[in-house]
Amino acid sequence: MNRLFLIFLFIPTLCFAQMPDTTGIYGERKDTLDASVFTASGNGNMLSRGKEIRTEVITAAGLCKMACCNLAESFENSASVTVGYSDAVTGARQIRLLGQSGIYVQMLDENRPVMRGLAAPWGLNWVPSQWLESIQVAKGVTSVINGVESMTGQINLEHRKPTDEIPLFVQASVMNDTKTDLNLASSLQLDEMGKWSTAILAHIDGNFMNMDHNGDTFLDDPRGGMAALSNRWLYYDPSGLQVRFGVRGIYDRKNGGQISEKVAGPDNWVAWYADIANKNLNGYVKVGVPLNEDNSRNFAVVTDYSWLNLDARYGKDPFLATQNSMFVNLLYQDQTHESLHFTAGISETYDSYDLEVSKTVPGFSNQFKTTSWTNDLGAFGEFTYHYEETFSAIASLRADWYYGSGVQVSPRLTLKWVPFEQLVLRSNGGKGLRTSIPLIDNIGVLSTTKELKGSFLDFPLEQCWTYGGNATWYLPFDDSQKTYLSLDYFGTQFVEQMLVDYSSGDIAFYPLSSLEGGHSHTDNLQLDFATEPFRGFTVTVTGRLTDARQTLKNQSDDYKPMTDRYKAVLNLQYATNLNRWIFDFTASLSGPCRVWDFMRDLDPMYKDGWTKPYPLLYAQVTKRFKGFDIYLGGENLTNYTQPNPIIGWENPWQHGFDASCVWGPLMGARFYAGVRMTIWKTE
Hints:
Blueprint: H1 2-10, H2 23-26, E1 45-47, E2 55-58, H3 60-63, E3 81-85, E4 93-97, E5 100-101, E6 105-109, E7 113-114, E8 132-139, E9 153-159, E10 168-175, E11 180-189, E12 196-207, E13 223-236, E14 242-257, E15 273-290, E16 297-314, E17 317-337, E18 340-361, E19 364-387, E20 391-402, E21 406-420, E22 423-435, H4 438-441, E23 452-454, E24 461-474, E25 484-496, E26 498-501, E27 507-511, E28 520-534, E29 537-550, E30 566-575, E31 581-590, E32 614-625, E33 628-635, E34 670-679
Parallel strand pairs: 6-9, 23-27
Antiparallel strand pairs: 1-2, 2-8, 3-4, 4-5, 6-7, 8-9, 10-11, 10-34, 11-12, 12-13, 13-14, 14-15, 15-16, 16-17, 17-18, 18-19, 19-20, 20-21, 21-22, 22-24, 24-25, 25-28, 26-27, 28-29, 29-30, 30-31, 31-32, 32-33, 33-34
């Protein structure tokens, strides 16, 4: 099987593929997170003025500001999104938006749902940032067209396009800890009429050195590597017919845990290892058919299939899992009225899981094996009304049938008002739903010797209401609208949620509804300011406050554990004439978070139940030549790391070992150098 997988991974296929979404299929819908093409200059993070929903855009310039080897490392300039680790041994990453876990954020690849189920803990590492043109982060509930899993927001990825006039792009970088990345991209137009075009994207990385700065015998960052290949195709007919298809294959292998030569113990002592092997194949086809000459009415079919296989070992315990997922979306759109747009459709999302898990606790071992499936069959309608450039409203309604939960109705409403040119007001709210997969959603629990209790093999339906708004004031300092002040508030209230509770000494799983008077909600307030005081110099300042509350059976208060209270980010960029030199500096300050009660007795730093705030600094210098760039930079220049991130590391086979309570950086200061080379198409 391994050999067959590698053959399919490294031979480009012309039959079907993972591919970008088609803005053309959806027309010019105002709420669509459409693609934008940016050069590697200018401000890297900005708020989109035209979107109905509050949307932060990380441009190609923003993706070049740091090492940004993958998607997980692309949000350091953003206070909206916080990225952390699921545990301290495997390298699995997780994001937070609006004070909630990233499982409540709908991840899209050009408006196609991705990173679901088994892909959620690892998917952020599977997207090389140099494959991307931009990232759009939308807060709150969004369009129902791709489902209702956008419970706290939506992150949409725009890849390099087959129509780009870049026959070859090469990026390579290396860090002082031997982490190495190589990316290749090529866009080709295959006929003079421009009907056929393709993009080939390739990536390989590796991490070869044992790094243990804090001396706990565990690797700070797992060794291993990843290889990925994507082939995207576009057929465009002058009649308006579009066919997009593609394929992507990934092989990701990580080895974490103890460094065997550092382990001192009895003769029969065995080092604690984490060995993770992921394989993923993904393919899709999208067809857009115009139903009249001006394409104001059209029909689209989107089909997607993903296969994922996880072969992992946590200490002595194997975790074997396979997922098969299918997504089908049928859409009809009518834009014949200038001010009124209508979209309707039906969709089907099907996931099957085979899980085989062993969990060793000192004294005994449990084995769990389950085959489960989830099904979401939905129908939806969405009306968009525009009154010139002053007012717009998007009203959505979706009904979904879930196996075991029946029919669930999700209403959503988005409003945008521009009372005068310099002020944009937005609000949106509605219901969100997702099927919980407790063990996968909280995969860090496997990096412990604690017993799992409760309903961790159930697949309950989680429900919440999210609401909020945004006000953006564009200051009249110049005509470019680069100076603005933005304030937004969003709140999330859960009706049902799967809770994970460390407060009893073991790890318990139970639904929110099982607690009498239980609650789970967050409130978020964020302020953004951006300006360009003089040509070439941009300043961006962002601050976020988060109040996250959650009822748990044995925790002493209702502050949600392991969630920071605030984050502030300052980014400065200066580019000389013609961008020959670009200087970037980013400083961030992350606020305290509530720890689990059991941690208060383990370390004096947690005696009041809270962590301490910590700063991070990043810097990069880029020298641009004709056709290529050279850059040097550093990450975490304050060299701050979470003290003792692995609880009980001295005796990892004893009760109490826990590598999942991570709230801060695991790697200290790192330095890197890289090169980007672009060959443009010439006539």
